[in-house]
Structure formats: C-alpha cells, structure tokens
C-alpha cells in the first residue's frame, strides 16, 4: 500500500448477479480510497476513491454478510450504502453507490452489523456525539434496501468500543466508554412502530475489583468468546494491556435487578421467558441517556479472570483483540501489540501460545477472517511499513 490503512475488516460477500461467493478484505486508507481484496485469489478486485466525498475521510467499513452490500462510514457522520457489482470487464468489479444517510452528528468511530436473517439486520454504531445508534436494514425480494432509524442512547462520555451479540436470543449491544471501567449492556428494542423503537441500557458490568472506583481504566476492545456467555475486554492499561473476562448475567437476572431498582414494576414469568414484552414496556418509559441518578443495576461479581496479555501499549494505543474463528475448534484470542507482534493467547492457561511477527512498529489495523477452504486468516496492516500481511 502506498497510503496508510486506517481501518480494515473481513466480509463474506455473495454477488447477486452471478451468485459468486467472495471472501474479501475491506481496507480504508488515508488517501480516501476503499480497497477490496479477494482473500481466496490474493488479488485486489476494486479500488474506489472518495466514496464519502472529496473532503471526507472514510473511518470504518463493514458489509452485510452473504450479500453484495458494503457500508462505509465517514468522519462527517454519514453512512454510504453501496453495492459491489460485476463490471463489463470479466475479471473486475465496480462499486455502485446507492444512498447516503446521516447516522451521527459527527465522526463515526465504529459500527457492527448484527444479523437477524438473510434479509435484515441491525447496524449498531458509536460516534463522537456520545450516542449509540441503531438502524434496522431491510432487503426486499427485489434486492432493494431500506432503513429504519431507532431512537439512540446517549452516553455520559465517548464510547471506545462496541460489540453486538444475541444474549438469551435477544439482541444486545456491549459498549465501553472512556473514564469508566463499567461495561454497558444495551438492549435493541425493536417495536412495531418507529416512535417506540429504541436502544437503552439494561445493566452495567464492573470490570474493576474495587467497588468504589470506576475510573482507573477503561475498555478499548471487546471480544465475544465463541458459543458462550463469556466476554473478554482488552483494556488501556500501561505498559501492558490486560485481558478481563466476564460472565454475562442472564436476562432473568438483569430484569430481576431492574425490578429491585424500581426501573420496572412489571411481573414477568421466567419459565416462559417473556423477556421481550417486559423490555418493550421498559423501553417505552425509560430515559434514553445515562445519568448519575439512573436506576440501572451494576453487576460486580462477574469477573472470571484478569490477566496480563504482555502486549505493550502506551496512552496513544488502540487496543485490538479478536476471538478465534468459530471455524476453529481451539478457543482463545488474537492480541494485536504495538511491538508489531500478533499473539495467540490461551485464556484457560493465561499464556501466549504463538507469536506472529509482522512489523517493528505499531500495527494500525487487523482482522480475522477465513478463506474458501474454511481456514482461519489473520490479516495485519503496518503503521510504519504500510504493508499488509496475511497468515493462514
């Protein structure tokens, strides 16, 4: 790469015109270019400049799994929805820009797509406006895309990290923010009408062993461990990132605490798991912003382990951790270090089991993906060398 890669991501695309399946890397560079690289054939299939406009740098990118829709967010708070199409040239592709929508007032720092089914999902995003926003994406039978905006949730400080999961079969967002060692758990309240569709906080999980301190550190990266209710957080500790693994309380436990706090007076039947109806009622009444007086429960006994990753970092670092691919039977994490080393970490032993040496400097971006042989791929983008390296 001639320019620095500022963000990268993995996507599995299905081209609607040809039904081709592509495992690709999506790369955004400082010269406002989106590169799409075929990980199976190891070749770049698209280079598109200024997708967010001549004056706007693109900050983050994702794709809707098993479709040809690519979503690019800019530093101006706008989301570009585009489609990868086969070009007239047999071996190349073009990018068709479909629409642009404003999803944040300012810079979008990260976004995640949580799939509902093959034709719909939730685009969850965080930005410098301190909001956690959700937009429901719907794809009709003709391949046309539409968007439903939910009422967002305002945090007390800027978010640092975001992850989306299904917890007890319900859509949940995990958010870390600066100046707080509390991990916020938010619920995506998908009501039938637009007015009551929103996202709101249902509990916090303490990452700090000290009950009376919440500002010693904050989360920088979140990884959902495969097939479990365990979440691992990479922190901003100096000089080495720490890995804190916590257990998510069940929805029954969370709603029980909300009732104790007086947030809801609704009686729910845990045996039939009627959580959604209770949460729908809470969502119609709760204030959609954090405050010191909010009656949101804090779970303080959820820490499973607190380990030293031995991955060096400083106050300017952006901690990156990734869970192993669910195609791989081994459980663990990939940790991206500022020393140019990617560490394979076994959480059960607290030890590094493999080191992949990339650059003698900081790794700006990385992702975990797979190829057509279902082999796990690790891709890193160097900050100094501007090189992209791929491990299989």
Structural class: mainly beta
Helix content: under 10%
Taken from the alpha-carbon principal axes, the silhouette is globular
Query: Beta-strand level of the residues, as a percent range?
Result: over 45%
The stretches of 5 or more residues where confidence is low (pLDDT under 50) are none
| C-alpha end-to-end distance | 20 Å
Q: How many runs of DSSP E, i.e. beta strands?
A: 29
Overall pLDDT, averaged?
89
The radius of gyration is 21 Å
Can you tag this structure with a few keywords?
52% strand, five-stranded antiparallel beta sheet, 392 residues, five-stranded mixed beta sheet, 5% helix, single chain, mainly beta, WD40/YVTN_repeat-like_dom_sf, WD40_repeat_dom_sf
Describe this structure in words.
5% of the residues lie in helices and 52% in strands. It is built from two helices and 29 strands. The chain has helices at residues 251-260, 275-283; strands at 5-14, 21-29, 33-38, 43-49, 58-63, 69-74, 78-86, 93-102, 108-117, 120-127, 131-139, 145-149, 153-154, 159-167, 170-177, 182-189, 198-206, 219-224, 230-235, 240-247, 298-299, 303-312, 320-323, 333-336, 341-346, 351-357, 363-370, 376-382, 388-391. Strands 9, 10, 11, 12 and 13 form a five-stranded antiparallel sheet that branches. InterPro entries: WD40/YVTN_repeat-like_dom_sf, WD40_repeat_dom_sf.
């Amino acid at each position: 790469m001639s320019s620095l890669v500022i963000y990268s991501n993995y996507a599995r695309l299905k081209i609607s015109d040809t039904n081709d399946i592509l495992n690709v890397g999506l790369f955004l560079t400082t010269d406002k270019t989106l590169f799409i690289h075929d990980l199976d054939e190891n070749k770049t299939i698209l280079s598109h400049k200024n997708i967010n406009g001549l004056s706007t740098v693109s900050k983050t990118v994702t794709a809707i799994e098993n479709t040809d829709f690519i979503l690019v967010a800019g530093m101006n708070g706008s989301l570009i929805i585009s489609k990868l199409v086969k070009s007239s040239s047999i071996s190349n592709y073009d990018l068709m820009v479909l629409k642009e929508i404003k999803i944040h007032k300012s810079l979008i720092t990260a976004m995640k797509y949580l799939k509902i089914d093959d034709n719909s999902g939730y685009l969850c995003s965080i930005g410098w406006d301190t909001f956690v926003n959700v937009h429901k994406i719907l794809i009709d039978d003709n391949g046309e895309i539409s968007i439903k905006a939910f009422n967002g949730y305002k945090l007390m400080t800027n978010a640092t990290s975001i992850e989306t999961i299904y917890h007890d079969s319900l859509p949940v967002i995990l958010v870390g923010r600066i100046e707080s060692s509390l991990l916020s758990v938010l619920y995506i309240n998908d009501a039938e009408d637009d007015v009551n569709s929103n996202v709101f906080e249902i509990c916090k999980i303490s990452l700090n062993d000290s009950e009376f301190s919440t500002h010693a550190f904050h989360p920088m990266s979140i990884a959902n461990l495969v097939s479990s209710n365990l979440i691992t957080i990479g922190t901003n500790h100096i000089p080495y990132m720490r890995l804190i693994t916590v257990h998510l309380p069940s929805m029954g436990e969370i709603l029980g605490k909300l009732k104790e706090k007086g947030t809801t007076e609704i009686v729910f039947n845990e045996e039939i798991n009627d959580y959604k109806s209770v949460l729908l009622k809470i969502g119609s009444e709760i204030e959609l912003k954090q405050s010191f007086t909010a009656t949101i429960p804090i779970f303080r006994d959820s820490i499973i382990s607190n380990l030293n990753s031995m991955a060096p970092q400083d106050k300017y670092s952006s901690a990156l951790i990734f869970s192993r691919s669910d195609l791989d039977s081994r459980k663990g994490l990939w940790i991206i270090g500022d020393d140019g080393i990617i560490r394979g970490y076994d959480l059960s032993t607290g030890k590094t089991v493999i080191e992949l040496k990339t650059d003698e400097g900081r790794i700006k971006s990385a992702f975990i993906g797979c190829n057509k042989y279902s082999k796990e791929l690790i891709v890193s983008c160097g900050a100094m060398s501007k090189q992209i390296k791929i491990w299989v």
